[in-house]
Amino acid sequence: MISLTSPVRTRAHGWPAGAKLGGLLLATVALAASSSLVVLGAGAGLVLLLYALPGRVFLAHGLRRLAVLLPFVLVILGWHLLAAEPLVGLAICLRMVAAVALANLVTMTTRLSDMMQVLRRLGAPLARFGFNMRALEISIALLIRMIPVLSETGGHLRQSWRARSARRPGWRIIMPLTLATLDDADHVAEALKARGGIGGAGPEISDTDERKSQWKRP
Amino acid sequence: MEKTVTHVALFAAIIAVLGLLPNFQLGFGVPISAQSLGVMLAGTVLGAKRGALAVMLLLLVVALGLPLLAGGRGGLGVFVGPTAGFLWGWIAAAFVTGWVMERWSSAPVLPVAAVASVLGGIVVLYAFGIAGMAMVLQKSLPEAALLVTAFIPGDLIKAGIAAALTASLARARPGSLMSRRAS
């Protein structure tokens, strides 16, 4: 899988994730509110500087992730060239690229575990209103765990299709894949229930070592 | 409770895995990913609430930094980019698709799933997508709509496939459509 995190460790990795996200939010709002070419240009230049500071590897990695915006940049620049207002097009592109680049920057320099911490902190007040944070955490873990399982199932299905047909499997394997997944979901639900369920019981379950060992996969 | 959690999580995983399938191309070179097909299926199979939850879970994990969108995209950047409207729209798309399925629960599966997928996965999804694109690219709504019309034929095909898949699921495992169960 292509990693979205940075190939090199930067100083920003040590900064608190909550502060980075807050800063990102403010900067995004500021970019959205501004229409001055000077401000947007300065903003984009600053973002580029942030990308360049950790070195060439980081810069190349970051710029590659922005390549998906290129078609949009070309369309907008072309559009506004035809409308004879190239500066308006330039402002739109600067704002868009700077906003996406800045958001990517936070993702590149923040570990998944740090992001989870922020999520947990944000979720804590919601828990008081009956929001089941534990269900959410189990869902996230399940989702991440099941992706390699499902893609392996998909691979098997594709192989067995190829063994019997010269045509490409395409969308046809989605049906057996979905069936297998729904069955898996039933089994996992039973397994969860057998291990005490998700219920409202909070983290005290996962804190006891005895219970923890039961959560391990057989 | 456990069943809801596992179905939501596993369907989110299906949508992610569909993003790994190689894109297929329409005759005129427009790439279509199978991922929005997964969003339609989430609605037709899981129903409104669970379908929307599956999409929200996937988007949350994408925002946390995992590259689970088609082409290995992900992270926070995709939520402010020009196609962000389509991502936000996925939630509403799955919900509306599931809602239509639940509403017409007495009618045959195939036609209802087709109508539901078109309403949710195309009409609602494009409304969000076009609005988002108009905002980011500073275009009027009709201008933004112009930029995405090329993708509508592909999505019509996907709605057809989603309906066919839902109907064969209902045949193969009659109890599997949560959108059709009174729960």
Automatic annotation (TrEMBL), chain A:
Main location: membrane
Region Disordered: start-end pairs: 199-218
Identification of the protein by name: Biotin transport system permease protein
Membrane-traversing stretches: 24-51, 63-82, 88-107
Biased composition (Basic and acidic residues): 208-218
Pfam families membership: CbiQ
Membrane topology (UniProt): Multi-pass membrane protein
Keywords: Membrane, Transmembrane, Transmembrane helix
Subcellular compartments: Membrane
GO cellular component: plasma membrane
InterPro entries: ABC/ECF_trnsptr_transmembrane
Coiled coil spans: none
Family, per entry: Belongs to the CbiQ family.
UniProtKB/TrEMBL annotation, chain B:
Any one cellular-component term (Gene Ontology): plasma membrane
Domain of life: Bacteria
Annotated localization: Cell membrane
Keyword list, A-Z: Cell membrane, Membrane, Transmembrane, Transmembrane helix, Transport
TM ranges: 53-71, 78-100, 112-137, 144-170
An example Gene Ontology molecular-function term: biotin transmembrane transporter activity
Membrane topology, as annotated: Multi-pass membrane protein
Keyword check for Mitochondrion: no
Presence of keyword GTP-binding: no
Stated family: Belongs to the BioY family.
Name of this protein: Biotin transporter
